[in-house]
Amino acid sequence: MIARATTRVFVAGHRGMVGSALVRHLQALGYEDILTATRSELDLTDQAAVQAFFRRHPIDQVYLAAAKVGGIHANNTYPADFIHDNLLIQANVIGAAHRAGVRKLLFLGSSCIYPKLAPQPMREDALLTGTLEATNEPYAIAKIAGIKLCESYNRQHGRDYRSVMPTNLYGPHDNYHPDNSHVIPALLRRFHEAVQGGEPEVAVWGSGRPMREFLHVDDMASACVHVMELDEATWRAATQPMLSHVNVGTGQDCTIRELAETVARVTGFEGRVVFDASKPDGTPRKLLDVSRLRGLGWEASIGLDEGLRDAYAWFRANAQQARAA
């Protein structure tokens, strides 16, 4: 049984969408010793600074939620930044945790690690069985490296470093940048501004046919802590032979057209929704097989309509901050 009140937890990336949800969830569960650091206080791409941080602060557990993230446009525009920064962050934090004697760490990956044409729903053992989606290949390779880094420390040094692969996430503190955001915040912002401006139509990238799965970030935080708190024997039994990773999702997906129509309803947009098929669709379908995590006792609880309303409420309450992102 974990002594939550006295366990010192470092949440890397606590100001991001996932990191902030993790802090909220940990606090709600009674974790009282949560360590965080802003980017100005600790540059995770600076190896010496990260090692010094771990030497200064005794840490029991690490949640590695820090990452450089973005949607299709950002991945296409800044591929070198995405692979370079994420490789540095992962290597620095995981390596420093090991050197400091931290036994437990949770690495957050992404469902883009799986091949573009992987059988659906995608199982954990689909990793490295085919060609990646070209639009986010550099980011995916960085995330695959993070998984393998955790695996390697487990094999060589007996660490208990675990990895979770979330589906598409959304919720409070998401990135609403007009060019570099993911699909849900991009659509929420676009439809909101169309309502405010009285616009007759909203254009959505792609054909609308690709299918995607979406998970509210509060569910993601719940899943992360659930995985971290599993006893080692249970985790090892579920992730043999590589002591690797588990998928985190809802097990349900929808088309981008259905998503756009739901966002229109949530934001009160009553005009036309048109699709720009000249823009890239990305992977045709991305649905995770979440049977392994269900077998470990966790399931998502926030439906898409409910989750979108929560995300939109946060956006409206924080419109100035979100629009400046």
UniProtKB/TrEMBL annotation:
<feature type="binding site">
    <location>
        <position position="182"/>
    </location>
    <ligand>
        <name>NADP(+)</name>
    </ligand>
</feature>
<comment type="function">
    <text>Catalyzes the two-step NADP-dependent conversion of GDP-4-dehydro-6-deoxy-D-mannose to GDP-fucose, involving an epimerase and a reductase reaction.</text>
</comment>
<keyword id="KW-0560">Oxidoreductase</keyword>
<keyword id="KW-0511">Multifunctional enzyme</keyword>
<keyword id="KW-0413">Isomerase</keyword>
<dbReference type="GO" id="GO:0070401">
    <property type="term" value="F:NADP+ binding"/>
</dbReference>
<feature type="binding site">
    <location>
        <begin position="13"/>
        <end position="19"/>
    </location>
    <ligand>
        <name>NADP(+)</name>
    </ligand>
</feature>
<feature type="binding site">
    <location>
        <position position="143"/>
    </location>
    <ligand>
        <name>NADP(+)</name>
    </ligand>
</feature>
<feature type="binding site">
    <location>
        <begin position="108"/>
        <end position="111"/>
    </location>
    <ligand>
        <name>NADP(+)</name>
    </ligand>
</feature>
<feature type="binding site">
    <location>
        <position position="212"/>
    </location>
    <ligand>
        <name>substrate</name>
    </ligand>
</feature>
<feature type="active site" description="Proton donor/acceptor">
    <location>
        <position position="139"/>
    </location>
</feature>
<feature type="site" description="Important for catalytic activity">
    <location>
        <position position="112"/>
    </location>
</feature>
<dbReference type="Pfam" id="PF01370">
    <property type="entry name" value="Epimerase"/>
</dbReference>
<dbReference type="GO" id="GO:0016853">
    <property type="term" value="F:isomerase activity"/>
</dbReference>
<dbReference type="InterPro" id="IPR001509">
    <property type="entry name" value="Epimerase_deHydtase"/>
</dbReference>
<dbReference type="GO" id="GO:0050577">
    <property type="term" value="F:GDP-L-fucose synthase activity"/>
</dbReference>
<feature type="binding site">
    <location>
        <position position="205"/>
    </location>
    <ligand>
        <name>substrate</name>
    </ligand>
</feature>
<feature type="binding site">
    <location>
        <position position="190"/>
    </location>
    <ligand>
        <name>substrate</name>
    </ligand>
</feature>
<protein>
    <recommendedName>
        <fullName>GDP-L-fucose synthase</fullName>
        <ecNumber>1.1.1.271</ecNumber>
    </recommendedName>
</protein>
<feature type="binding site">
    <location>
        <begin position="166"/>
        <end position="169"/>
    </location>
    <ligand>
        <name>NADP(+)</name>
    </ligand>
</feature>
<feature type="binding site">
    <location>
        <position position="281"/>
    </location>
    <ligand>
        <name>substrate</name>
    </ligand>
</feature>
<dbReference type="GO" id="GO:0042351">
    <property type="term" value="P:'de novo' GDP-L-fucose biosynthetic process"/>
</dbReference>
<feature type="domain" description="NAD-dependent epimerase/dehydratase">
    <location>
        <begin position="9"/>
        <end position="232"/>
    </location>
</feature>
<feature type="site" description="Important for catalytic activity">
    <location>
        <position position="110"/>
    </location>
</feature>
<dbReference type="InterPro" id="IPR036291">
    <property type="entry name" value="NAD(P)-bd_dom_sf"/>
</dbReference>
<comment type="similarity">
    <text>Belongs to the NAD(P)-dependent epimerase/dehydratase family. Fucose synthase subfamily.</text>
</comment>
<dbReference type="InterPro" id="IPR028614">
    <property type="entry name" value="GDP_fucose/colitose_synth"/>
</dbReference>
<comment type="pathway">
    <text>Nucleotide-sugar biosynthesis; GDP-L-fucose biosynthesis via de novo pathway; GDP-L-fucose from GDP-alpha-D-mannose: step 2/2.</text>
</comment>
<keyword id="KW-0521">NADP</keyword>
